[in-house]
Amino acid sequence: MVKICCIGAGYVGGPTMAVIALKCPAIEVVVVDISVSRINAWNSDQLPIYEPGLDDVVKQCRGRNLFFSTEVEKHVAEADIVFVSVNTPTKTQGLGAGKAADLTYWESAARMIADVSKSDKIVVEKSTVPVKTAEAIEKILTHNTKGINYQILSNPEFLAEGTAIQDLLKPDRVLIGGRETPEGQKAIQALKDVYAQWVPEDRILTTNLWSAELSKLAANAFLAQRISSVNAMSALCEATGADVTQVSYAVGKDTRIGPKFLNASVGFGGSCFQKDILNLVYICECNGLPEVAEYWKQVIKINDYQKNRFVNRVVSSMFNTVANKKIAILGFAFKKDTGDTRETPAIDVCKGLLGDKSRLSIYDPQVTEDQIQRDLTMNKFDWDHPIHLQPMSPTTVKQVSVVWDAYEATKDAHGLCILTEWDEFKTLDYQRIFDNMQKPAFVFDGRNIVDAEKLREIGFIVYSIGKPLDPWLKDMPAKRKEKKRKEKKTMNSDTNLSSSSRKGKSVGESKEKKQAPWSREEEKIFENSIAEIGLNWERIASRLPGKTIEEIKDHYDLLVKDIELIESGALDHLL
Ligand SMILES: NC(=O)c1ccc[n+]([C@@H]2O[C@H](COP(=O)([O-])OP(=O)(O)OC[C@H]3O[C@@H](n4cnc5c(N)ncnc54)[C@H](O)[C@@H]3O)[C@@H](O)[C@H]2O)c1
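Above are the sequence and the nicotinamide-adenine-dinucleotide SMILES. Below is the predicted complex in structure-token form.
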């Protein structure tokens, strides 16, 4: 019986090996890990990762030809084929920090294989690694061979979380790279025979080692680049009145481009895209290709820009301050159908809002409170290390509460942000949510999953990425930081209150001068109307017979500016 051992029981090692065991009953598959809790979870009814269909596959073969164990050395020694699927984080220190892949875990796995092996082995790179890693691994393994032959193969994994089992059962392709020697080709054939149990031959591609290693980085860079391209377009759509959904549909109809991966969103996340692009950038730089490095860097820059833009929209829409306001966060995982939060855009959005002192109430159907608190307190790149090496959750963020229900999260909130496209968020009772929220009530849809028009009919002010802007948002461009600075400058020469309800000159004085003063009664109606029906200018005007829509909008602008001035502290001497 062929024996396979996989080092690393994570999002890749676990599901990949479960499917191999399912499809190859004649092969014994053991998945090993240094994390005792992870292995215990794989051996329990509560698997350590959530992935549709995974439970079923594991139940069918666990104990038959699929085993999970912490006896790493024993099972590596006994195996014919050793897959290595350990973490390959971004380096945080030393040469290449912030870009290069940290191969500490890979190297220690390779040294252990060399130490414990007593028979020939095929060692398979399953982790995503920099080009030429196989060469380094080969050196470690062959340095102290004890007469043992090793063949290194690169077999990068292309599964996507959330659809991992389907991707593994019906892969677009399986890629195997190996040495172009007879021994190398023999090893490729041995691994091909495993996959050929269920993958059609024409989908199993074989290449040299370096092409296989680079193909994985290239594939992730291309995928992320599509998202950044459509996200860059979304900003332009908001500025011009185009609708990004219509634009990407029209663009994707071109068969040379295709429709997939063209959804605008708050940004991409997941453990791989950013890490692998940074790695690619580093490799380009090391190979004297700064222009190529710069090109790929831009993909990450646009992703960061998109997340910032979203936070700015939220804050500027809500009178330029979210201090002490409750904001509901619906969805924390980086995409639907997974509990994985690694590099999720929700972390940056939440940190941005917390930076503006808001209170957050977070609900995600698959992410625990401990994980959310950990994510919001962890440093960049710390997340991508084996669990036992990650920092403990040191402090909890006081302004964050994690709840188990979308209605609870949104109760008394001023705004709600949808950050993961979970199906259940499409069918929530938004009328009930609106009734229980503060007014005006805002929805910021970071995944374009709600029917914005229906929500507007209910009374929400809605922001959808890359869609024509709500009139409220038009008046508040998402450039609050620059705007604030400019206004501070203006205030140096004139720091008086602007609204007619207060004394003094106005920043928007020229507009105000032409209008009849507002009575206290009109002010009251105006404020109550906004609280009750949001920025529905027509309806507000119908309650204020003496005022035109233009006058009401101007009055609103001045009110917003007042709040900004107060928030900036510039008026403290007057209050
Ligand atoms: N997550 C994805 O969607 C995905 C897809 C394709 C490729 N990849 C790549 O696959 C690799 C693994 O990713 P993942 O998401 O499964 O990571 P993960 O963090 O979920 O799992 C890695 C596991 O390796 C274990 N480990 C680390 N060093 C070890 C050692 N010396 N001995 C035994 N176990 C050890 C860790 O404890 C951890 O459980 C990465 O290189 C990643 O880039 C990930």
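The radius of gyration is 28 Å.
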